[in-house]
Amino acid sequence: MTTDGLQITGLGKSFGGLRALDNVDLTVKPGEVHALLGQNGSGKSTLVKIMTGVYAPDPGAEMRLWGRKINLPLTAPHHHGIAVIHQDLGLVEDMTVLENLGVTSGYGARAIAPISFRRERATGRQLLKSVGLDIDLNKLIYELSPAERATLALARAQRLLQEHSEHFVFVLDEPTAYLSAEDSRRVVALMRDVADAGSAVIFISHRLQEVTAVADQITVLRDGKVADRFAGDEADQQRIIDAMLGRKLNAYYPNRTVPAPTASVLKVRGLTGRRVLSVDFEVAPGEIVGFAGLVGMGHEEIPYLIAGATPACGGSAMFDGIELLGQSARAIIDRSVSLVPGNRQRDGVWTDALARENLALLENRHQLALAPLRLSQERGSTLSAMQRFGVRPTEPDHRVGQFSGGNQQKIVLAKWMADSPRVLLLDEPTQGIDAGAKFDVLNMICDAAAKGTVVLVASGDYEQLANICHRVFIVRYGQLSAVLEGEHLTSANIARHAQGDLREAG
Amino acid sequence: MKSDSVGDPDASSIGQQPSLAADPPDLGRSAAPGGRGRRRSLKFAEQYGLLVILVLSFAVFSLLLPDTFATTGNIKAMINSQAIILLLAIAVTLPLRSGEFDLSIAGLMVVGAAITAQLTTSGYSFWIALLLVILLGLLVGLINGFLIVKVGINSFIATLGMSTALGGLAYAITNNSIVANVPEEVRAIARAEFLGFPAIVWIGWILVVIFWYVYERTPLGRYLLFVGGSPNSAKLAGLRVDRIRIGAFVACSLIAALSGILLAGNIGQLDPSVASQFLLQPFAAVFLGATAITVGRFNALGTLIALYLLTIFVTGLLLFGAQPWVSDVFNGVALVLAVTFARLAARLNGRA
Ligand SMILES: Nc1ncnc2c1ncn2[C@@H]1O[C@H](COP(=O)(O)OP(=O)(O)OP(=O)(O)O)[C@@H](O)[C@H]1O
Ligand SMILES: [Mg+2]
Questions:
Q1: Which of A53, A240, A462, B113 measures 20 to 30 Å from B146, CA to CA?
Q2: What pLDDT digit, counting tens, does each position of A467-487 carry?
Q3: What is the pLDDT of residue A337?
Q4: Domain that holds residue A439
Q5: What is the pTM of this model?
Q6: In the structure, which protein residues have their CB atom closer than 6 angstroms to any atom of ligand 1?
């Protein structure tokens, strides 16, 4: 009856009393890149998880693929030609890169036929090359940076697409959240190619520049309902944001205060890790210093090294005259140094524990391990932290895993920014956070700096770095290749230098 | 570990899923009709379901077997017979909470009992036996902890090896024979009666209360969970991850070794071959117990309830004339069912 690639009607999903999706209709035509947008917690990932059979929808929903009715809840999504990159990527932590590349396609072998490892390796290398990733196939996923993981997940999805000539529904749930502008451009190009070959593509992102660049159609969700739909070429960021938030957003970025010139308090000399090599810099109180670079260049390693989360191989990082390197995480926290890690599922929170248990973990250090917990106080302070950081729903007794991706990230920020640290080390701090909440979070970071906190932020979001930082260092091949400040600090310049293009942007 | 990664992003191993306190109000969204009431009763069923089954099964067996099952003598016998198992079950919640197995508890207890029995019957002071048993517990706990935490050996394998070695050691200490006539002094420790129950039972109950407090009401109880559930985030939050993990093994081994003294005292003799009788039941109780009270987490009260539930069934069936092997079959099946049930409950909650 119809040639529409994917057609969903009347889709609803409740979690207990919470209506995550409410009577949603969505049609994605073949050849179309369809952006699914919405505030944190608006139901995007829930829709994706229903499309892969992770959740069963409420009764009454209908789903058609290429005109054929599909039984819900869905089983075996690949057999229906649905390929998905989930928000948490779905890589197997303690298996190797090579093994992960193979799992979804049965290692190119039938169930009990032997796997040809030589062929697997060749395919693996070629896939990694096609996404511009230079890592050892034997590395464990555990050791990869968030950007490397995201790129790997992409390579794997690409394999799945290559191996099936039929048309696909390709769903990408925030694949670019951890990526720099160039790397996400590659993702966007891949989506375009896949769509042009006749597949239907659903793309979820909070980075609106990418969305307006690639989307043919846009559907905006708000509180689980479709709030607006429009064609890609009618969309501008303002309109999208208004539809997402249901209100006007006056500014994307907070005003940064210029710190009074004072002596540096954080002095880093010869810092050497797995990627960075002998890096020197100094930061004064109140300064926000950015680190940018392409995937694997080492910029994202710097906050981890200073926080002692990855052991440094050499160098020194003096804060207030005290050496930070070589100390335990515990000692570093006691110096009031906070790391907001980029890999929130692994390093940021324990998703199976309650929000308040995660938030109270740092607080608990101040009491004896066997002294009674003050549960009502804990609920109270969690509630206020959740309100301050705009976590929705404001439920201290929910498991962290029950929150949407963006709200989980806010919980991580709340955990580490709660007792006003003196040094704030941030890795991709606003990953997965929607435009409205991003302003609030950045505002809190700028506020902290205005009160004298030293802020270091590693990010692939160049526009954000250009707007909140006082200085940005470019990291190439493990070394600081440039520093941008003042009028030279623009996102275009960061991009140029990150790619090693030394001309100034006009 | 994640298995089918593409289709199943939230798959987690055993259903580690807390449920505490009452639901605070949902903010922001309208409630689905009947949703909240249903949700609350679901949660109640989850938390107290096992307790309800315990009460019901007790009532049913009492009605069917008024003369044999529902007697004070039988009730006391059921409770007394599980005293040792309860001690081991509580001990093993420690490593399990931190994400590791300890299969050496039963073997360790028997070695502790062998030392106690052998020394005291040969005329040595009880205090020397006590000192040696404590040292044994510390040593085994440290070795387990070191192998698993520092060397990185799988806990299942490391403690299986330890268990087998300890089993052999028990025979060595007792010269391959049953040590009889444990002195009265030692027997009194386990058997001294208070309010109709022997000390060994009271010690188990006191441990339940202490561990309930530690697990539900102190930071340490949480640290154990975080260290097992998310070692990286625990470490970055300043927890001494390795120390906590090793500590769990040491504390578990200490309790298991000291239980040996009670075992020797309770029976008044020691047969070095009994270890295998004490291995499965504690695990069955602990895993089944994790489906109650603080659902999805190994906890003290749940363990107690589960243990008594299993005993009621086994005893009831035996009194109906079932063969003794029923006990093993029943406990084995219960262990598997408990784990299955935890998985299903987790899925019902939209977690898998
Ligand atoms: N397993 C769950 N149990 C209870 N509530 C859940 C569960 N999963 C999601 N929710 C709730 O459903 C709502 C929608 O979540 P979803 O993850 O779909 O949001 P999202 O649009 O993907 O947001 P984000 O941009 O932050 O990723 C949220 O309010 C979330 O808290
Ligand atoms: Mg999401």
A1: B113
A2: 999 999 999 999 999 999 999
A3: 94
A4: 251-336+419-506
A5: 0.88
A6: A 15, 18, 20, 38, 40-46, 87, 393, 402-407, 432; B 350
